[in-house]
């Protein structure tokens, strides 16, 4: 299982890099605005595009290599200690204020009246919004989803990098489509168009 998961992660990362670099190379090899800006010395345009691609790679690799917020056995103690602390504070308040037993139970329960849950797979106590990822085999804090492109889960610690990666990728895609659109040679027949614009 671990070897298969590792191979999938390496393949997805290689595939993403291969596609992105391949498209950038095509834009630099064909007669496009990007190629003309490089060869004519208009470095600002090319630097902005290539810089954005580089920033996209940084966000991609940070989001894919950072721990998404896996729950560990060490963190279990802090969850249980904080729960017991709230429970003790609720009991001391009830003695001082003369609250009923029902009020003590509500005060002692985890936030928003929810109860502590244990994962059915790894038996760890899960905080709110934590979920077990069957692909990774671990519980993840603030679990969003398992992303096959990243090869890991999107959770508490890598969520912002994932969104920054998506934003930069969308800008790169739109900019590349703009470059491609204005690089196309328009012909009357599809055959001539394909011969003029094809590989």
Automatic annotation (TrEMBL):
<keyword id="KW-1133">Transmembrane helix</keyword>
<keyword id="KW-0012">Acyltransferase</keyword>
<feature type="transmembrane region" description="Helical">
    <location>
        <begin position="42"/>
        <end position="66"/>
    </location>
</feature>
<dbReference type="Pfam" id="PF01529">
    <property type="entry name" value="DHHC"/>
</dbReference>
<feature type="transmembrane region" description="Helical">
    <location>
        <begin position="12"/>
        <end position="30"/>
    </location>
</feature>
<feature type="transmembrane region" description="Helical">
    <location>
        <begin position="161"/>
        <end position="184"/>
    </location>
</feature>
<dbReference type="InterPro" id="IPR039859">
    <property type="entry name" value="PFA4/ZDH16/20/ERF2-like"/>
</dbReference>
<dbReference type="GO" id="GO:0005794">
    <property type="term" value="C:Golgi apparatus"/>
</dbReference>
<protein>
    <recommendedName>
        <fullName>Palmitoyltransferase</fullName>
        <ecNumber>2.3.1.225</ecNumber>
    </recommendedName>
</protein>
<keyword id="KW-0812">Transmembrane</keyword>
<dbReference type="GO" id="GO:0005783">
    <property type="term" value="C:endoplasmic reticulum"/>
</dbReference>
<keyword id="KW-0808">Transferase</keyword>
<keyword id="KW-0564">Palmitate</keyword>
<keyword id="KW-0449">Lipoprotein</keyword>
<feature type="domain" description="Palmitoyltransferase DHHC">
    <location>
        <begin position="117"/>
        <end position="188"/>
    </location>
</feature>
<keyword id="KW-0472">Membrane</keyword>
<dbReference type="GO" id="GO:0019706">
    <property type="term" value="F:protein-cysteine S-palmitoyltransferase activity"/>
</dbReference>
<dbReference type="GO" id="GO:0006612">
    <property type="term" value="P:protein targeting to membrane"/>
</dbReference>
<comment type="similarity">
    <text>Belongs to the DHHC palmitoyltransferase family.</text>
</comment>
<dbReference type="InterPro" id="IPR001594">
    <property type="entry name" value="Palmitoyltrfase_DHHC"/>
</dbReference>
